[in-house]
Structures
1.
Amino acid sequence: MPPTDRIRDHAGQGAPTVAAQRTRRRLRADRARQLADLLRHQLLTGGFPAGTLPHESTLATEYRASRNTVRQALDLLRAEGLVERLPGVGTVVVAQKYPHGLDRLMGLAETLHEHGRVTNEVRTMGPVPAPAPVAERLHVAPGTDVLYIERLRHLNGLPLSLDLTYIPLGIGTSLLGCDLENTDVFRLLESVTGRRLGHADITLEAVSADAHSAAVLQAPRGTAVLMLERLTHLADGRPVDLEFIRFRGDRITMSGLLHRSL
């Protein structure tokens, strides 16, 4: 016997109790979240090429869900800004997330070249004394000047990320006359050093956007952004680029290919 039926029998006369109602709501919310995850994957991988989702009744049949569960799942996607309900049309896709791979060391323009043009607005650039955590990771003495660069990065004119970059001054000085508005820093580092980049240590987490970041990225204050911290090394192991990158979470999705190793 299903758990909800046992609860009704225990209550007597089949009358639903408060606990039973809460259980049903929780189960429906669980199913709606599961369905939203499946639909989100289809949205992000081109599963609805016409830009319109099937009718609610069709989704209910396809996924063996109730209409209420389908509506709740669509509400979750609408809250994420991925879909919208248009009278007389149905539920349509209104936003696109762009794939950013985590299994190759590439600049943003290299990563997203198939999706449009990446441009950079250089907001700040110049030498600053290295804070202790920056100095430690770049292997320079604390307080030593490093080149600091703050860039707002756009894809097809839409704000995508806010990048804060620290580079040892001996290398960074060579970047001062370079075209940072249209060229990835990775390409420039390889050009000025004459060496290939080797590897990077990365950390990815969700953080709340501070007032400055939210304003620059044109995102609601307090919204979650994807924070990518990346320390990049030359092929000889020398650290050359420490970045703190805030991505708009509604415009980027991270993916990678992982191999199991014991």
2.
Amino acid sequence: MPPATEPSDPSTRDQGERADAAARRPRLTPPIADVRRAVRAVLDGVPADGLVLVALSGGPDSLALAAGVAFEAPRAGLRAGAVAVDHGLQAGSAEVAARAAEQARGLGLDPVLVTRVDVGGEGGPEASARRARYAALDEAARQTDAAGVLLGHTLDDQAETVLLGLARGSGAASLAGMPARSGRYARPLLGIRRSTTVQACADAGLEPWTDPHNADPSYARVRVRERVLPVLEAELGPGIAEALVRTAEQLREDDDAFEAQIDELIEEICEPAEAGIAVSVGALAANPAALRQRIIRHVIGSEFGVALSRVQTLEVARLVTDWHGQGPLELPDGVRATRAGRYVVFSTTGSTEILPHDH
């Protein structure tokens, strides 16, 4: 009989540690595999040894995403961390953020940051919380030199966004929903149902936090989720959420095409003006209405940081298509639109002086 291996033998300890790790590793189930596959596709474009951060609320979507990133990032030669943002909007929010951070560390993510933000009231609580959250995520990305920030929005979130945009009469850009990528941000789970992330957490032995705001009918998004979409599914048949997301994808393709056209045109049709910018009337008139109105919104947005409503956009367009001597238009934030000969001039002083353009 061969002699028994001593317990202190390093090879035995290594085998034991690997066995323990295998025992702790969650069994690969279809929901876990779906999340990992979605994460893998997004990580493919991150530079080697880059850091990605997961925006972690502790809910099932972001927690399933964190688990998927913790598994896939090392295999892609990347580092992965997390940011838990405490909005301070409800009792115990600090404990929720700390618990989310603890779970992230347990998954092996590093660094894990917890940041508290002050949510103002401008534009309503949802919009204020969103602005504060993204400001905190931007700062975390700068501090850590992260290559990207991953958000846990799902197919259901996308469907709700499109339906809300439709109900509000939003334009195609809004109905296109949330982009899969936007700057440093990426949303790997836009093709994954919320039920899948919930099951992925259960299969991995993770305990997500349930946000009480997600059941509060005072929020329009909650009413869409709990009442409107179920009625549409019941009356029109299953697959409504997927159909809304397909619509968003098609509209985003259209929106991207328009933006590419605008990028090609903008330098040729604009001139600098005192305290503003001037756009060629002839160029605006020569383009179809859809492109003309997008150019107007693009110019105002990029030059002054102002978002025009459809009514305001159409009024500006009338300075091109229905000009009969009408006076300047007052737009938000002190911006004025004035027809001046061959140009529509946008400025904050009311001046219509066109400045020399160094081509």
